[in-house]
Structures are given as C-alpha cells and as structure tokens.
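quick one, 471 residues, struct below
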Amino acid sequence: MNEEPSKPPKTSSYTHSPQVPAQVLPRLAVILQVLSGQKTVSEAAREVQLSRNHFQTLMHRTLAAMVQSLAAKEPGPKPKAPALSALETRLKHLERENVRLKRRVEATDELIQVAGELLHGQRRAGARARKTRKKVSAEGASDPEPEPRTQLLCAVDRMHALGVTLVCASQLAGVDASTVRRWRCGTGEPRRRGGRVAPGLRARAEGLVRDLHGLVGAAALSHGVAGITRRQAARIKAQTLTQMERERLAALHRVRLHAAGVMRGIDAMCLATPAGPRYALIAADAAVPYRTSLALSDRYDTQLAVELLERDIERHGAPLVIRADRAKAHDTPEVRDILRQHHILMLHGPPRYPRFYGQLERQNREHRAWLGAICDPLGASMQQLLERMLYCLNYLWPRRALAWRTAADIWHERDPISHGTRYNFEQEVHDRTQRMACSSNLRGAPADLTERLAIEQTLTHMGYLHQQIGR
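---
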C-alpha cells in the first residue's frame, strides 16, 4: 500500500513574553513611566544617568518598534525579495534543462545502440534481399527462421520514436521509406515498378483516350492496349487528360467587356422555400461581377421582368444592352416598351447554347452556394436574405480578376453613358443589321441573328468588347 505523504506541521503566530535582561529593565520601566505621563523626559534621563537627547532617542526607537508591531499587515505570506525570486526561477529553469539534457543523452545512447545494430547487418540500399532456403529437420518439417522484416520494423519504430525521421531511419535500415510504410500496412508483396512504356504503345493508349474523350478506365485501357500494365495505363490517361484540357483552354474564344455599365445580364433562379417554389430574377453587370438589382415573386412572368427592369434602371441607369436568355417573360410587349423608352437593345443568345450564358450561370452557382451555407436564417424573409447576399458578394469579396478589389469598387468608378454615345450605338447597330439582312442568306437561322451579330460587332468597333483566343 502506498503511504500518504506526511503533512508539514502548522506554524503558530503566537509570540511568548520576552525575557528582559536586568541591565535593560530600569530603562524599560522609566520609558513606560514617561509614556504613561508619570515622569518627564528630563527626570527619566537623570534617573538612568543618560543625557536627555540620548534617552529621548532610545525612547523613540522603542516607540517605533511598538508602532511597527501594532500596525496592520497585508494578508498572505511575506513577499520575497526580487533577487531571491529571480534566483529561484533560474534554478527551476536549470533543473528542467538538466532533466531535458539527461533525457537527450539517454535517447542518443539508445539511438547509437539501435543504429549500431542496424549497421552491423545492413545491406546495400536498393539491393534485394537474398532468399534463404528453409532448414529441414530430421522429421521432414521445416524450421521457421526469424523474419528480418520484423526486426527492421522494430528498429525503425524505435528510432522514429526517439526523434529520427522515418526517411533517415529507413536509410539506416537499408530500405526505402515507402517499403517501411507498406510493411506496416501488412502488404509485404513487393511493388511493381511502372517502368518505361514503348513509344508505340504510348501513342496507341493516348489515341484511345482521345477517341473516347477520357471515358475509358485504366483497367480497360490496359486490356485494350496489350503490353502496358494498369498502373502505366492510369499514368498515361492522367497525362493525356491534362494535355487535352490545356489544348481546350488554348483554343477557347474569351469575350471580355472593358467598361462597366455597358451591358447588363438578367437570369432567374428557382428557390425552394417552405411556402413553395419562388423565383428570384437577378440583374448583374457583364464587365464586373456586380449584382445591381433583384426581384422576387411566386411566378416567373412578365410582371417580374418588368419590376426588375424598372427598379434596375431607376437605381443604376440604363445600359446599352440587356443580355437575357430566351425565356418568354423576357420578350413581351411590356418589356419591349421599357427597353424602347430607354433606348436599350435586347441581346438574346443562340437557342440551346448554354455556354453563351456561362457568366450568368456561374453567378447563380455562387448565389446557391451562399444561400445553401445558411444554417439558421433566424426568421429572415427570402427578400432580406437575397439583399444581404448581394451586399456580401458586391462589397466583401475581393477577386483576383479585379486585382484583388471588390466588384463595388470597380462599379462605382464607371463612366456614365452619354446621350450621344447611346444614339451612335443604336444607329450603328441598326445600319449593320440592315446590311447583313440584305447580303446574307439567313434561311433557317433565328430571326434575331442579324441584330445579335450587329450588337457584337458594334460593341467591338466602339472598344467595349474584345475577343481573344486562349487565356
């Protein structure tokens, strides 16, 4: 049984009566008589045969000692001197450092011992271990020999526990770090190296990946091209897909607008709410990802589009072009009247061509991600959540494409569109539309193809739009 440690005895603060020496007793009695008022200082000094000043000094010292003993003291232990506290702190630090150095010396000694054991039976790094035949006893049974792999693992684990990295410990053991990890997982079979693939086989495998647009798996590719392993097929497929993606990006036509406020896009987004589906129609600039306005309704109809356009034009002014998809709510007499009143042209994309609306779709993906991250809306209405979303995306998100500025910073620096610019733009689009309608064979094409091409050409001619191949 463990004995409980003995507690230190409690110290008492009681002070016993002092023993007054015989030669001091007359002076003490005279001082008490002076303090009580029975004698004067001069009489007491003559009685003890001292000068008045000397006796008064002794009396004052006695009185000071009495006052100091009677004064109230602060609770708790008496504070130590700063020098003593500093020495105690340094002593504790040195003791901890001494313990740490002792442990390091012990670990170093053990590490040297383990490394010596490994170096004593080490084989050349990268060399394969020779297979030894099992000894057969007289009864015909094979005697099991000690497995060196277990000994190596134990030694590597001991060194790793002593602070040596796994790579260094594995090198001392004469094996690779990946081999040690594989042994720990219990898969002792050696890993087959991929090796080099013949150029002809690689070309056939790359051609098969390109013909199937990357849909073929590594196992199917290894069976389709005889002579390559599954691991080689997986590596060839990954490299080919990377090259195909680079070629696709290099062949893309990128369209960029250089001025904010020239073109604005609108697109709807269906939201699932406890009260049923609701439709949010959001307007955003085409040059910078600045969301200008939104409208929310239970139905996606003309009234929702008219409400959004009127609110957006009133707050941010009329752009030159409104880009929209081919929803029926965007092409109604009410919508055309608003656009005609403010001299705005409608740019409809080609039918069944979702890449034309890629910018709007990416923005809707951001909208859904922001709304989906809300765990508890705390009773806020959908209108309030959408307005908060627009503020966060516009004012709180610095973007790399904007030189780490927010969309609101770029939007507020835009130049207003003058009446002359609007008139010239509308007139040039009209002239180009008429010329293309007279000179082109548009049988089977959409009715608004000429106007769409005229708008794109006019934006390019006026310096607002720029197209480039690749990044």
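The chain has four domains: 25-64, 99-121+147-189, 199-251, 259-469.
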